[in-house]
Amino acid sequence: MFLVILLTALAAVAVASTITALRNDGYHRLPTDPARLPHP
Prior knowledge:
Layout: H1 2-24
């Protein structure tokens, strides 16, 4: 029973970490601002 609880807790931490990573690593990228591009 202890192992089931441990695996459930591990899965919950993994899901929370995945959601946090997807929110913070630029997954929702903003469009490039043309004013910031170098001019030739």
